Amino acid sequence: MEIPPQDTPQGDPPATTATAELLETSSARGRRSSTADQLGNEKSTSINTGSKRFGDVVFHNAARGSGILVLVIMAAIASFLIYRSWSAITADHTNFLTTFAWSPDDTPSTFGVAVLVYGTIVSSLIALVIALPVSVGIALFISHYAPRRVAQAFGYTVDLLAAVPSIIFGIWGYMFLVPQMGGINAWLNTYLGWTYIFKQQYPGSAARSLFTVGILLAIMILPIITAVSREIFRQVPRMHEEAALALGATRWEVIRMSVLPFGRAGVISAAILGLGRALGETMAVALVLSTSSALSLHITDYGGGTLAANIANSFAEASPFGVNALIASGLVLFVITLIVNGAARIIIQRRKEYSGANA
Amino acid sequence: MSDVLSKPSAMADPLHITGRRLPGWTPAASAVASVAVAAGIGAGFGLASKLQWGLIAVLLFVGAQYILAVTVEGRRQAKDRLATSLVWAAFVLAVLPLFGLIYYTVSRGIKVINGTFLTHSMAGVLATDTDGGLYHALIGTLEQIGLTIVMAAPIGVLTAVFLVEYGGNRLSKVVTFFVDVMMGVPSIVAGLFVLTVWILVLDMPYTGFAGSLALTILMIPTVVRSTEEMLKLVPNELREASLALGIPKWLTIVRVVIPTAIGGITTGIMLAVARVTGETAPVLLLVFTSAVINTNPFSNPQSNLPVFIYQEFNLGTNASQADAWGGALVLIVLVMLLNLVARGIARWKAPKASR
After folding, report:
1. In this predicted structure, what is the pLDDT of residue B35?
2. A323 touches chain B (CB under 8 A)
3. The overall pTM is greater than 0.90
4. What is the interface pTM, i.e. ipTM, of the complex?
5. Which of A5, B9, B215, B353 could bond B276 through an S-S bridge, CB–CB 3.0 to 4.6 Å?
């Protein structure tokens, strides 16, 4: 996607030839059509007196039309989600936000998003806590530590890995990661059980827990956080680094004093971008997590659920009303991602203000 | 800053510019040693998971580096070494699972891929049968992705043109904001939206086309974003030169601006396509899946690769899970190919300083 800086367009031939071609055609047209009316038309637009050419009007409106279409789609998504979920939430016999169970088709219907919201947030936070330091490390490795050739090849590979479909992470997590996690869970239970969160209520059960899901999500969001942070670290002004080096700083001190402060906001927004992706992740979670309607702080126990995975799991056997209930939970997910992405946007904007003098 | 300036005495010997250094082979040696010790510990305590062995080795390596450096080179150098070894550890930690995933998929998928698998559907194949294939899913994926490109690419590119070339007004600010919002729409929510509008309200059938509608919603914002960036890279001098020659604005855009940026735009579209190709959730809600070959995306359920993988995997028999891995390999190869083509176009079409 990115064009290397040395390749940025500078008076490049393809465009110039296009311009020359245009010049040719328009002058040919000028020579051929010498009627007064056409000349007048050309003159009036070229000095921009207000009358617009037909092609301009059509093209401008087509461009504006697709802009408006995007707005319409977003408005439609929001209004339909709200409308359908409203009819579901008003029919709910319990509090939608605090109920644990998800059984909209019972009579009276009871469903709530408490467990799902908790599971979504906890698994994404675990993913972020694991992925952020590792991806910053890899980004630094690519931008400042690795030999150039290795860095280029590796950065390229990381980009490719960002495109591995989530369903493949899901079946890999199910077949490979879950069995491997058993030992680590037992170890955590024995030595870190006093922290409460690593205590296992059901020791020895398959590790289809929020913790495993968090690790899987961490692996999934690693490439995206790495890719963004790496770009940020590349933009660190060379002068800052050289100034630090000239003061006799070690490589780590250069990074701590010039690279990290410069990149902080960018890394934060990269992290939030990754968090947003982890929040909405569906199939990998649906495959790995063994769901239940229990809200437990023991993250290495099976159970819990996430909003997205719940939609995928319960959709097949949902009644029309159940689908409305699922849409309501989708709306909650939408709002959460909206808040998270909005935060990222604000941070990026602030960074733009502060790095006005980035030379 | 203050750390360096206020502690000149941290250097081991003020008379020498350089302090004592560890020999260059130390990191390699301590890496080998820590792997060996970790293997010893792992085998000795009977730790089942190789992941634990790896984690122990990493911890040992980082610790050994730090302690060695503190004793020989001093605190500042030790911190530097600690950071270096942590960065290398991060690299290894990331590489192992990611490449492990690729290796796992390839080694399992390659076993089932053959001519029959690629050219037959799953129609009438039992979960325990080893024959059958993913032809129906492959066709579904290609058609749905094709439809998605046809819908999303023009809308996305035109919206980006609007934002960059006709921007600056209030409408463009609103559109920018909502493109950002759209970027964050979780894929399953997009699927639910198309489900409510297209299938529940308009009463349309479950078809491949419904799936591509959801994928279009997911793809538009990515295309807009990347195209926008590429159009912004086109130097203003080109536009001004063209306009100064009396060429209308729309022709300037179509013949000058877009051709200059076409490499980047295509790359952006291909990368977006690679992303939506792997989407499972919205398609699962909308395409309804079928095991027979259906070449018409506008009528009757279709299948597609991610959904094929999901369903075969969930059947749970050895034969069906093997098929799922075969599908996973085909899907990874497809996505990687799309990526490589995108990079190739970017390199081939990238404007060069001189030709």
Report:
1. 84
2. yes
3. no
4. 0.82
5. B215
